[in-house]
Design a protein that fits this description.
- The protein is an alpha/beta fold and about 230 residues long.
- Helices cover about 35% and strands about 20% of the residues.
- It has an eight-stranded mixed β-sheet with strand order 1-4-3-2-5-6-8-7, with helices on both faces.
- The longest helix is centred in the middle third of the chain and has 14 residues, at about 85-100.
- It is globular and about 40 Å long.
Length: about 230
């Protein structure tokens, strides 16, 4: 029976289909990400959200705790949430439906192909919450703050747009700050222990709650693109 399968949730395709009005599932049959991204299928954001308000993007939204709470607290802001793992994003989709949140739309895709769906200058803020630090040197290019990803983010962001990063890995945090500086992002703020310097309006993620319970420090930075 499907429920015995460890790597795929029960009735996943049917459940994704039932949420089809709030998600685009990427066709990744073309494994060449650069080529796949060049074939544009821009989301009609104003039509999706019914307004031309600002759009904020979470990359790696997981089960949706952060984006759902953020959207509920900020009804005049539109949120696009990206998650490449279908088994994970389905929980975010179903939570969004259950809570009746109308200002979230999802992309079931890898970060490499975000420009396939989002036009240049369409995003005011990007959230990178507890991205996989991929500590092995050989995986450095896969880190979501590597310059090859920062180039994508710079194109997606409006002039003066922001990136907010949170992580529990100091090594990854320092790597990220170095990359941000090299790519000419302005460092607005750096916090090396969020518990000691809490930020008003900050929303806790699933990972963050667990890391805090384990006594780990949470690192947070705000970066800005040139105006």
């Amino acid at each position: 029976m499907c429920c015995m399968r460890m790597h795929r949730k029960c009735h996943l395709d049917e459940r994704l289909s039932a949420c089809g009005d709030i998600v685009t599932v990427a066709d990744l049959s073309d494994k060449n990400m650069k080529r796949a991204s060049s074939v544009k299928e821009f989301l009609p954001l104003a039509e999706i959200f019914g307004n031309s308000g600002p759009v904020e993007l979470e990359i790696g939204c997981g089960k949706g705790k952060f984006v759902c709470e953020k959207a509920a607290a900020n009804p005049l802001v539109n949120f696009v949430a990206c998650e490449k793992i279908s088994n994970v994003i389905i929980e975010a989709l179903e939570r969004t439906k259950a809570e009746g949140l109308k200002n979230i739309y999802y992309l079931n895709c890898a970060a490499e192909v975000l420009e396939k769906y989002l036009p240049a200058g369409s995003v005011s803020r990007i959230y990178l919450n507890f991205s996989n630090p991929l500590p092995k040197e050989g995986y450095k290019r896969q880190r979501l703050t590597h310059p090859r990803f920062l180039e994508i983010y710079k194109r997606l962001l409006v002039p003066g747009g922001e990136i907010i990063q949170k992580t529990d890995s100091e090594e990854f945090f320092d790597f990220s700050l170095k990359c941000f500086a090299e790519e000419n992002f302005s460092i607005v703020s750096v916090c090396r222990d969020l518990a000691e310097s809490p930020v008003d309006g900050d929303v806790e993620t699933e990972h963050e709650r667990r890391f805090k319970s384990e006594g780990k420090k949470i690192f947070r930075a705000v970066l800005r693109t040139p105006v």
